Give the backbone structure.
Amino acid sequence: MALMALRLIFVLITAVVGGVVAIKTGGEKWMVLGVLAGLAIGGAIIFLEMNFRRITIRGFSAVLIGLVAGVAGWFIFNQILHVLPDEFFGSSSQQADLVRGHISVVIMLVCVYLGVVVTLKGAEQFNLLLPSSKIDAAGSPSGNERILVDTSVIIDGRVADIAETGFLQGELIIPRFVLRELQTIADSSDPLKRTRGRRGLDILNRIQKDPHIDVKIHETDFPEIADVDAKLVKLAKALDAKVFTNDYNLNKVAEFQQVRVLNVNDLANALKPVILPGEAMNVRIVREGKEAGQGVAYLDDGTMVVVNNGRDHIGQKLDVNVTSVLQTSAGRMIFADIK
């Protein structure tokens, strides 16, 4: 309450100062405009103070560009006002100047407001200064591809191994909203979620300490969007970046919106040994399958093997023959019959 009262008093003081300055410089006829200008300036300062923590370099640059554009637009309109004859504004020269002054102030406020609002709404589409703030001290040559990293692929952990091999050429960009989601998972009351979140934070620390991996954190957010995946896709489109994920649904949504995707599962499937129908293997049945009579086993790399008529052999090792292989972005499944 004390802070709100202080802000209110500050705005009232700026209004009084604006009115006094207007009277001293132009007379009592300018008092109302001076008070309004003081209120506007005080309100703008309070607004900046309340939102200072959320202002990024990109947003600040957008505000500056919007101010310059607004003032330029006001200057053009102001010149037009002075070119028009006095008869358009009043019966006397003094009255015409007064009307011009009022119109000029209104045009200035409108132009500046529109300039700032338009540039702020499109701030994520501008590469005004740096697109992000560096975490790593390693430099990267200009023109490298940008790769936005999803929460799921950080928790997965394979992103660190892939990055260390040098196959990822470009900047790994971690959006701020992804970090917040990761921290929320790490602080969860669910032990399983908490473990996954802390694993993700450990992976980030591991990547950051590698001098050969260029990692940056991106401050742009979209408060009007609640879903993290939707934010990631929108940011990728704005930066013309790729999305690095192993989330099947995010993969499909991104592809539908013409965003390039690097899917860890696709890479893992491409590197797995080719298994052809007719090949034999020895597996342990660990649980029953979805369909009647099916048993499920897993290879060492986590690939699921669905064995027909394997339900009665749970806990046993069986020799099976591969009948078919289903390979998708969500992973690979092998279907087999008991040998």
Observations:
- The chain has three domains: 2-125, 133-270, 273-338.
- Residues 136 and 215 are 6 Å apart (CA to CA).
